[in-house]
Amino acid sequence: MKTFFEPAREINVRAEVDILVVGGGPAGIMAAEAAAKSGKKVMLLEQRGFLGGNLILGLPILSMLDKDGNQIIKGATGKFVERLQQRGMATGHKRCKLHISLTMVDPEAVKTLCWQIMDETGVEVL
Fold it and tell me: Which of 70, 72, 60 shows the shortest CA–CA distance to 99?
């Protein structure tokens, strides 16, 4: 096996955290929020100038309901959608033949709410 030698070098430390979350999409936001609420010092890295990931594409959230119309997605995701609904920035969960259900969200409201959650929970965003 071929190897390369890299001499030691000094690297500045940007921050020391308990948990580093990479990506500010829906999963990253929920992971950072949960970690921060458990008392961890959390940093979230996002390559774009906004948070929200695929939720800001204007596509609906699929399958919050089961085939009988009961809400099955709850927890942090359910609370996120509820907060958007309280602001008039998300529809109710509508039944759909192709996807069981869909929920439309306002992309700009998603960005704003993601930042608000990071601020509320003390997550540093880089």
Answer: 60
Cα 46 to the chain's mean position, in Å?
A: 11
Q: At what angle do helices 26-37 and 75-86 cross, to 10 degrees?
A: 100
Return the SS3 of 74. coil
Q: Which residue has 């030691």 as its token pair?
A: 8
- What's the predicted TM-score (pTM) here? 0.85
Taking every pair of Cα atoms in the chain, the longest distance, rounded to a whole number of angstroms, is 63
The answer to whether residue 104 scores a pLDDT higher than 90 is: yes
- What values do phi and psi take at 120, rounded to 5? -60, -35
Question: How far apart (Å, rounded) are the C-alpha atoms in residues 40 and 11?
Answer: 24
The predicted-structure confidence for 40-70, as pLDDT tens digits, reads as follows 999 999 999 999 999 999 888 888 999 898 9
